[in-house]
Specification:
The protein is an all-beta fold and 346 residues long. The chain contains 2 helices and 30 strands. Helix content is 3%, strand content 51%.
Length: 346
């Protein structure tokens, strides 16, 4: 790579960057496509308009403490969870309302939603479900330990919670809440569900991933990482699982009998810098990766072609997200830098 100027070409030509002053703990786009949000460790959220990324970003004081998680809400706007025990909805116009308050000693984390109207979040050992109007549906748990990750399947019918010694799978609409427990010894954190709902994979406290094929409870062990994986996601059609935790993007094949017995594909490596975040394009087999030195790259899986998005030097990438249409990309760093790019064809 010929230097910072070349590596920053996309950010300079298609986007903008801001110094926000605190660790960016999460980024998300509203499903309506008008806004992007950056959640910070100081409890604030910065809102940017996707139509005019150069316009002023609005700073909203949301949590009395640290922000922990940010995600798209069910229809429009964003949901934010904090260590003040509050679940807050932020509308596209920047107004906010508290949907739930679990108390100052509780952390609202690992938020996820579904367009059908399901909101799910972890609070300690429990997963709370709310409907699209904010009404409580049910509380699932307690789980064996503090929940390390929460995911909904593509239809919004099942919720998965990772925890110590495995994953619990719950049916959202079940009359009797009794989980299917997927067991594997150890501590499980980040979690991903394949688009077809047949595979569940977690990142473990040790430097490995573990997966279950739900059709026959087959275990899948994916190891060899030099550091802990904190980010993983399936590509749009579920053919590949992209993961951080190595000095490249590690892609496990979920086709042709994989991933067991098959070597992973490795992209965008070679500089001995750990990949910290990955985000798969919502439509194409393209993955964006952020690294510990602040570098952001976009890679096409089939060809292996890599395009720099943002240059290193701004701190480890701590948050990364596409919008639903796959036209906009946002990222944030531990040092408080945030970037927003419009990648739509011109």
């Amino acid at each position: 790579m010929s230097g910072v100027a070349e590596a920053d070409f996309l950010l300079d030509q298609r986007g903008t960057g801001r110094e926000l002053g605190a660790w960016v703990v999460g980024v998300a786009f509203g499903r309506e496509g008008r806004s992007a949000g950056f959640a910070l460790s100081d409890g604030s959220i910065h809102l940017a308009a996707t139509a005019d990324h150069a316009a002023d970003w609005r700073k909203l004081e949301v949590h009395d403490g640290a922000g922990l998680s940010l995600t798209a809400d069910v229809a429009d706007g964003l949901l934010s969870g904090g260590d003040d025990g509050k679940l807050v909805r932020i509308a596209p116009d920047g107004t906010s309302e508290t949907l739930a308050d679990y108390g100052m000693m509780k952390w609202v984390d690992h938020l996820t939603t579904h367009p059908s109207g399901i909101r799910a979040m972890a609070v300690g050992k429990n997963v709370h479900l709310l409907d699209g109007k904010g009404a409580k549906l049910k509380t699932l748990g307690p789980h064996p330990s503090t929940v390390g990750g929460v995911a909904l399947d593509a239809k919004g019918k099942r919720v998965f919670a990772s925890h110590y010694n495995g994953v619990s799978s719950w049916f959202v609409a079940a009359k009797e809440d009794k989980p299917r427990v997927l067991e594997w010894k150890g501590s499980h954190h980040a979690i991903a569900v394949s688009p077809d709902g047949q595979n569940v994979v977690t990142a473990m406290q040790e430097n490995a991933l573990h997966g279950w094929r739900l059709t026959d409870s087959q275990h899948m062990r994916m190891s060899g990482y030099p550091s802990k994986t904190q980010s993983l996601c399936f590509t749009a059609k579920g053919r590949w699982l992209a993961s951080a935790g190595a000095d490249c993007v590690v892609l496990w094949p979920f086709f042709g009998g994989g991933p067991m017995g098959k070597a992973p594909n490795e992209l965008a490596g070679g500089d001995q810098v750990i990949c910290t975040r990955v985000a798969c394009h919502p439509q194409h087999e393209v993955v964006v990766a952020g690294f510990a030195d602040g570098l952001v790259l976009m890679a096409e899986i089939a060809s292996g072609k890599v395009v720099p998005v943002a240059a290193p030097g701004r701190g480890p990438i701590s948050a990364l997200a596409w919008n639903a249409a796959g036209t906009h990309l946002a990222f944030g760093t531990e040092t408080g830098f945030a970037g927003l790019l419009d990648l739509a064809k011109r």
